């Protein structure tokens, strides 16, 4: 079980536990998208790839860089798992794309297997369930590249979600409640500073996440793209803070890096901290047990926990039929909207490898990172290219911009899968 205790400061102490069945979701439409014949522009290891903004990596090269390909070659591809994302319905003037065409073209271009997509229309409406923003397409293509056997599930959010802080907080809670149902993994690529949420909303979010953990659902959250001042769209003064849901101790918070890989082979070369990666220390949650004794952690929850490529140029190519005509495309920078679904896909691989859903993996991540396996299972990010907006430096071990670093999945995933001690922390 999960222990929750309120401190006199109003900060919460939380740990990871586990307990069974997924609750039911709302109205859902489903399709399986066949990729068709391979495209002539397909890029696999051995050929540099260029997108409209500059050099980029094919999914195969991206998988090689993070040590994922050996897992896929051994049959660990996410089959039997479902990964859920949340995305807004695109407004009519947003140049929306059709997610079915995006996935079909992406798979055809890069010789990936057919994608199975489920769309939950309870909140966003069912008029045009397949219309998508670049955010949704990017989320699903990253997850599909990493875990091509997993079912892709989308919870649609009303298009006016970003019109106000009140809309954003209410819709995030409603979407999260739907997202954790009938799934194995949830990957949330958007976030909002802690101060926008009332105490009641923080408690409601945590209650939702407790339900996720009780049903063995792993929840991944991006740490945000605005450094340590995640105040968007003029909604208020600048507040140095971290963002929810990534700062909740039941969520694996994911920061951003800039990946450098061999443009021909995809072999990992190096990474630096992405300067706009969100991170820092919670004003809501006290330090969870799994962070006790970690150098650099304060008395409150530190985020992020891990990281992945967020820098754009040099990152993984996407295909957006509505804007790129089906050609390899980069969103620059994609930010932590690309690093979160990387870890969403990895969690699906770990579940399959373990033959059961792992639920909250934070304690396992910290145990592995503090063991002799750390430098084999992770790329420790210790350099910055600039101070950027985060203000926290990358450092050896855990730091509040890249967490423990990025995955070497061929080592990390088997370690996660073998982690079976789920006692309260």
Task: Please describe the topology of this protein.
Layout: E1 4-6, E2 12-14, E3 28-33, E4 49-51, E5 54-56, H1 59-65, H2 69-73, E6 82-88, E7 97-98, H3 99-110, E8 115-120, E9 131-132, H4 134-146, E10 151-157, H5 165-179, E11 185-188, E12 192-193, H6 199-214, E13 218-222, E14 243-244, E15 252-261, E16 268-273, E17 280-286, E18 300-303, E19 306-309, E20 318-319, H7 321-324, E21 328-329, H8 336-354, H9 362-369, H10 374-377, E22 378-379, E23 406-407, H11 409-418
Parallel strand pairs: 6-10, 6-11, 8-10, 11-13, 13-15, 15-19
Antiparallel strand pairs: 1-2, 3-8, 4-5, 7-9, 12-14, 15-16, 17-18, 20-21, 22-23
Helix pairs in contact: 3-4, 4-8, 5-6, 8-11
Q: How would you characterize the overall build of this protein?
A:
The protein has helices at 59-65, 69-73, 99-110, 134-146, 165-179, 199-214, 321-324, 336-354, 362-369, 374-377, 409-418, and strands at residues 4-6, 12-14, 28-33, 49-51, 54-56, 82-88, 97-98, 115-120, 131-132, 151-157, 185-188, 192-193, 218-222, 243-244, 252-261, 268-273, 280-286, 300-303, 306-309, 318-319, 328-329, 378-379, 406-407. The chain is α/β, with parallel strands linked by helices and 425 residues long. The protein has one domain (27-418): Peptidase S8/S53 domain (Rossmann fold). The strands form eight sheets. Strands 3, 6, 8, 10, 11, 13, 15, 16 and 19 form a nine-stranded mixed beta sheet that branches. It has a two-stranded antiparallel ribbon with strand order 1-2. Strand 4 (49-51) and strand 5 (54-56) form a beta hairpin. Mean pLDDT is 84; it is low at 1-11, 17-23 and 421-425.
């Amino acid at each position: 079980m999960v222990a929750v205790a309120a401190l006199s400061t109003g900060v919460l102490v939380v740990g990871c536990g586990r307990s069974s069945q997924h609750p039911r979701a709302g109205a859902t439409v489903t399709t399986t998208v066949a990729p068709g014949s391979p495209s002539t522009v397909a890029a696999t290891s051995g050929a540099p790839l260029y997108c409209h903004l500059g050099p980029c990596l094919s999914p195969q090269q991206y998988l090689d860089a993070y040590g994922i390909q050996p897992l896929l070659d051994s049959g660990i591809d996410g089959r039997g798992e479902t990964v859920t994302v949340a995305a807004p319905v695109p407004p009519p003037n947003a140049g929306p794309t059709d997610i079915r065409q995006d996935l079909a073209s992406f798979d055809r271009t890069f010789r990936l297997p057919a994608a199975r997509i489920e769309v939950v229309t309870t909140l966003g409406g069912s008029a045009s369930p397949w219309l998508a923003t670049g955010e949704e397409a990017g989320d699903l293509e990253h997850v599909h590249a990493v875990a091509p056997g997993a079912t892709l599930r989308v919870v649609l959010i009303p298009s006016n979600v970003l019109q106000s802080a009140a809309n954003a907080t209410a819709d995030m809670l409603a979407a999260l409640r739907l997202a954790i149902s009938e799934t194995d993994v949830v990957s949330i690529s958007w976030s909002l500073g802690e101060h926008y949420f009332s105490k009641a909303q923080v408690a409601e979010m945590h209650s939702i996440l407790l339900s996720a953990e009780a049903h063995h659902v792993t929840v991944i959250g991006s740490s945000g793209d605005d450094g340590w001042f995640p105040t968007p769209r003029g909604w208020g003064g600048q507040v140095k803070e971290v963002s929810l849901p990534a700062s909740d101790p039941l969520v694996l918070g994911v920061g951003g890096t800039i990946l450098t890989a061999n443009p021909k082979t995809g072999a990992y070369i190096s990474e630096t901290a992405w300067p706009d990666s969100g991170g820092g220390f919670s004003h809501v949650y006290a330090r969870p047990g799994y962070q006790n004794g970690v150098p650099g952690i304060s008395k409150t929850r530190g985020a992020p926990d891990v990281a992945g490529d967020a820098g754009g140029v040099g990152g993984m190519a996407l295909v957006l039929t509505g804007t790129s005509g089906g050609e390899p495309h980069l969103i620059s920078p994609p930010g932590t909207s690309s690093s979160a679904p990387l870890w969403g896909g990895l969690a699906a691989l770990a579940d399959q490898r373990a033959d059961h859903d792992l639920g909250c993996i934070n304690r396992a991540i910290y145990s592995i990172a503090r063991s002799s396996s750390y430098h084999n299972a992770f790329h420790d990010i210790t350099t910055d290219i600039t101070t950027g907006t985060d203000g926290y430096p990358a450092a050896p071990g855990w730091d509040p911009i890249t967490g423990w670093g990025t995955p070497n999945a061929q080592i990390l995933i088997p370690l996660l899968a073998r982690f079976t001690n789920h006692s309260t922390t």
